[in-house]
Amino acid sequence: MSGEVRQNTSVATGVIATAPSATESASDPALDTNPESVGAEWHNTTSGEIFICWDNTAGLNKWKGQKGNVVQPARGIFWSGTQTAPDADSNIIDYITIDSLGNATDFGDAHVMSRTSGTCSNGVTGRGVKGGGNYGVVIGNTDRRMDDMEYITIDSAGNAADFGNLTQIRSQVSAVSNASDDRGVWGGGYAGSTVNTLDYVTISSAANAVDFGNASTVMQDNSATSNGTNERGVFFSGNRTSNYVNIIDYITIDSAGNATDFGDTLAGVAFSTACSNQTNERGICFAGNTSGGSQDVIQYITINSTGNAADFGDALAAMYGAAGTSNGTGERGVIGGGYPGGVNHNVIQYITINSAGDAADFGDLTEVRSMLGACSNAG
Questions:
Q1: How far from chain centre, in Å, is Cα 125?
Q2: Is-contact 266 272, C-beta < 8 A?
Q3: Quick one: how far is CA 139 from the chain centroid?
Q4: What CA–CA distance (Å, rounded) separates 302 from 182?
Q5: pLDDT above 90 for 12
Q6: Does residue 166 fall inside a structural domain?
Q7: What is d(CA 294, CA 270) in angstroms, rounded to the nearest whole number?
Q8: Is the residue at 24 inside a domain?
Q9: The domain spanning residue 357 has which CATH number?
Q10: In angstroms, rounded to a whole number, what is the distance separating the alpha carbons of residues 226 and 168?
Q11: Range of the domain at 302
Q12: Which of 159, 172, 214, 275 is placed for a possible disulfide with 108 were both Cys, Cβ 3.0 to 4.6 Å?
């Protein structure tokens, strides 16, 4: 005779406690399901997936399903940047738990000190990739651009490693991904002149980037986000040969090709940052620099519906050069660092993406930085 006895409270007495019944629901468990103990079961009667709780910290539960799905707090990454404008670059990588307010913690070191890189991830699969940018101290009129790409495992603190190279040496570039569908796309940038280059990688497989197509216009100092596995990526504004532009482009991430006009931002803006609530379809363009100087304007679009951006609210200060990411359908966007009032700062602020309003204080980065990158393991 063989078998497994669960919750035998006393081998000596042979008293066997009644095994707890699993919770049955038409949806997955949530971060705040808060079961009594680790090991609790949750059965999604719609998908058939069985989840086991492996951390029941109140409001920050972690669940793993037998089909590979995971419910856990999202980790946000803030990567490199410049500490003292314009040329003291950092190799610091910080992380936060997006679902819980607080200060950032040191994650590890970047492979290359850099700024103005494009950063994205493959979501819950857990790999972040950074590519392009400027590196090192600017000497005279020499602008040190690079095509280097590096990666981290978001769930496991440590130093970045080499990934490969973009198709072109360039700085002031943005990046976007389709989350767990595993494709990252880098758009625009400055390569001695402003370019319309789009190139892509498979995030889970370290290798050089491949040509994707072209943006609708040359662009640099732009920002990008997506609706995750719904496959639409959007690129916001930027500079075009020293002129601020208000163009929004979009691509279908899983299908290489040229970008298409989406609509317009409220004004031409450069060095903004962007994030989204993934498949809930709202994209955010946060602050940035305009022809009139830095702005505190937050604007939004509905990603799966072309059209112009609308006003969302205000940042804590007029600024540019921050970095943003989110916990996806958890609806929290976080924006770290930036350059308000003529000095870099370490402030992290947050918004509720599906509810228009002003940003609020979240905590602080481990050091002041602007022109940094951000990504998360959500989506």
A1: 13
A2: no
A3: 31
A4: 22
A5: no
A6: yes
A7: 9
A8: yes
A9: 2.120.10.80
A10: 23
A11: 75-376
A12: 159
SS3 of 264-327: the string is ECCCCCECCEEEECHHHCEEEEEEEEECCEEEEEEEEEECCCCCCCEEEEEEEEEECCCEEEEC
258: left (phi over 0), alpha (psi -120 to 50) or beta: beta
HSE at residue 231, side-chain half, CA atoms within 13 A, is 6
Cβ atoms of residues 95 and 104 within 8 Å:
yes
- CB atoms near residue 60 (< 10 Å): 15
Could you report the per-residue pLDDT of 174-222, keeping only the tens digit for each? 999 999 999 999 999 999 999 999 999 999 999 999 999 999 999 999 9
Query: Which two tokens mark 71?
Result: 């419910």
- Structural contact between residues 67 and 327, judged by C-beta atoms closer than 8 angstroms: no
Reported confidence tier of residue 6, pLDDT bands at 50, 70, 90: very low
| Phi and psi, residue 29, nearest 5° | -65, 165
State how far the Cα of 337 lies from the Cα of 355, in Å rounded to an integer.
23
In this structure, are 107 and 41 located in the same domain?
A: no
For residues 80 and 67, membership in a common domain is answered with no
Model confidence pTM above 0.85? yes
276 within 8 A of 228, measured Cβ to Cβ: yes
Residue 73, classed as helix, strand or coil, is coil
In a domain, 3, yes or no: no
